[in-house]
Amino acid sequence: MFDPALVALQALLEPARLAALIAGMLAGMVFGMLPGLGGVAAVSILLPFIYLADDYAGLALLLGAISVVYTSDTITSVLLGAPGSPASAPTAIEGHALAKQGKAASALGVGFLASMVGGLVGALVLLVAIPVAGPIVLALGTPELFMFALVGLYFASSMVGPNLAKGLAAACFGVLLGVVGPAPAAADFRFTFGQAYLLDGFTLTIVALGLFGVAEVVAMLAAGGGIAQERSEIQRWGDGFRAFWQRKWLVLRASVIGVFGGFVPAVGASASTWVAYADAMRSAKDKSRFGRGEIRGIAASEGANNATIIADLVPTLLFSVPGGPAAAIFLGALFSFGYYPGPRMVSENPDLMYLIVWSVALASVLGAAVCFAATPVIARLTRIPFAIVAAPLLLVMVLGAYQATRDVGDIFLLFAIGAIGWLMKHAGWPRAPALVGFVLAQPMEQYFWLTWQIHGWGFLARPGVLVIAALILVPLLVGLVRRSLRVETSVGPVKPADIQVEKPLAGLILASLMTLAFAYAAWEMIGFNTDSRLLPALAVVPGLVFSVAVLAGRLRSGIDGFDPGFREPAYLGAIILYAVGVWAVGFNLATVGLLAWMLFGCAGMRPIGGTIYGAAVFGGIHGLFHLMQYAPPAGALIDLI
Fold first, then answer.
1. Which of 225, 166, 174 minimizes the C-alpha distance to 202?
2. Residue 638 backbone zone (phi > 0: left; psi -120 to 50: alpha; other: beta)
């Protein structure tokens, strides 16, 4: 056990890999502080850069970001009262109330230290889980691994949002995106529409950035204004250390709760944080302060959410079942480097497993230290208009998408999926199941094809399969019984920040599009070979049923138009117009126009300052193109490089 751990530590401390870990940590901190973005956006943005170095450095880059997102979003939650992620909502409630009372230093200090402890507890659990769970994983066959993937997909669909049909339809849509391109078991190219661009299928970078990043940038651009309205002063850090030490056992207890939340795929930090918060309230002698500035709420919330996001990696690494969207992207990165979580990784790559443990532990400690040092500066920068941040952020997304095939189609696809993600957000469809379905499509198809060839439908009678299937059937039956008896329960599906109050017209448009997409896919796959349509059929048939059910429900509920004051469609249209501009006149001219619109039109910058900042952003993006060793896209009508 200790030899691979020491080898992994030595490998991580090599300068290039340590630099990658720190770079990922800093990126994760920045995205954690931006409300609505968080870990998924951070990992998505970094995904194109993981291939610039070796596999260990690339994975360390992602792990650095994953480990500190819930540490840095404490700053946003306390100073602004806006949770940087849904799991930080309790921190925002209690922390911002304390900040208004002049106790921001105590709130932030407890939050940072509790986050660090939660991350270290999560890393310790990873360390223990590897040797303990290894023999169990080695005993699993392809039928059991396929069933675990189904369980993860079901949990991702059923535990986020109140509408199960929407969650399952979103998961089926993700699987459908994942099977576009070549079939691994037969000589078929599926759902390519005769386009050479689609012969290799979609890339994880484009799907992740489109579903999550574009929609959030559009929303925050349309909201306008600055990140904060008032300046917050930070001082007396010693108060935070003392407050943390007085509640150290509460933090440890919350971290354990977070670990158990991470073990259950797709339940994650949003649920475990509220469970830990409820435990802190239950164990408090004076409950009257909760909601008005109670430091115990911050200690419990931050200890739980950081432990959860690290513990999310346990089912990801041992069973190929992502614990959440960020873990799903990390799983895709493992696949791209040729690592397959489960039996092969446990037996053949123990050094990689321990490198992951060391990465999250080191990033958790360094992240807390950097947050302490950076908070006073950040507090003075929170009044800048978001459009100033959105300009380089959107360009980095474009660069990340373009590196997939270096075709302008990458940029169109990014914004097309971004439009779908935006519709999902406003139609009340969870986006996390779609991302998890996309990531799991490839391993699910491999496992299912092998299972079908060896066992046929007889695999359903295997004891391990029946036990794993019970993880789906038992909660489903219990839920049906409770509904039929009308039993009210305080524990239910979690509504994360990526699900808004449904806008009826958006719901109608999305349900109609999904119904048409699944109907076309059902007709198209009739011409596939038998082996090529095994997995598509598992996604298309139920996806069509669920989409029709959602569409019927939407029609029964009636349809209203968009709120006249709702500005997001115009901003989405402007960003899509930018993609058309890149195709027509090339990256340079289109980007100059985009920067001018964002900096002068949206952010209201002065001519000289906006020009200097825009030139710096433009030069920085070109520097990234040079670093990744390819040229920006040229225009079809005007070729200006």
1. 174
2. beta
Under 8 Å between Cβ of 460 and 130: no
Contacts of 576 (CB under 8 A, 6+ apart): 415, 419
Q: Is the pLDDT confidence value at 167 over 80? A: yes
Cross-strand partners of 494: 160
- Tell me the three-class secondary structure of 44-55, residue by residue: HHHHHHHHHCCH
Q: Longest C-alpha distance within the chain, in Å?
A: 72
Helices (H), 33-141: 38-46, 55-80, 89-100, 104-138
Q: Report DSSP state, residue 385.
A: B
Please compute, for residue 592, the number of CA atoms within 13 A of its CA located in the half-sphere on the CB side. 7
Side-chain half-sphere CA neighbours of 415 within 13 A? 23
Separation CA 311–CA 327 (nearest Å): 10
Please say if the pLDDT value at position 273 is more than 80: no
Helix intervals (H) in 320-385: 325-336, 343-348, 350-381
49-73: b (≥16 Cβ within 10 Å) or e: bbeeebbbbbbbbbbbbbbbbbbbb
Residues 6+ apart with CB under 8 A from 142: 446, 447, 450, 451, 454
* 232/79 Cα distance (integer angstroms): 7
Phi/psi of residue 139, nearest 5 degrees:
-85, -5
Decide: 352 and 130 in contact? Cβ < 8 Å. no
pLDDT in tens, 352-364: 878 888 888 888 8
For 598, the token pair is 């964002």
Mean pLDDT across the chain: 78
User: pTM of the entire structure?
Assistant: 0.70
Distance CA 595, CA 600 (A): 8
Q: Which two tokens stand for residue 591?
A: 């980007």
CA distance 225 to 68: 27
Work out the end-to-end distance of the chain between its first and last CA atoms, rounded to an integer number of angstroms: 54
Of 50-59, 145-154, 602-611, minimum mean pLDDT range = 145-154
- Distances from the Cα of 152 to the Cα of 243, 321, 437, angstroms: 38, 5, 9
Q: What are the structure tokens assigned to 422, written together? A: 């935006």
CB atoms within 10 A of CB 492: 12
Distance separating alpha carbons of residues 628 and 243, to the nearest angstrom: 46
Phi, psi of 494 (to 5 degrees): -90, 140
CA atoms within 13 A on the CB side of 337: 23
- What's the pLDDT tens digit per position in 25-68? 888 887 776 655 556 667 777 877 887 778 888 888 888 887 88
Q: Which amino acid is at 353?
A: M
Q: Which residues contact 513 (CB under 8 A, 6 or more apart)?
A: 420, 423
| Calpha distance 263→314 (Å, rounded) | 7
Distance CA 580, CA 574 (A): 10
- Which of these, 480, 491, 504, 517, lies nearest to 554 by C-alpha position? 504
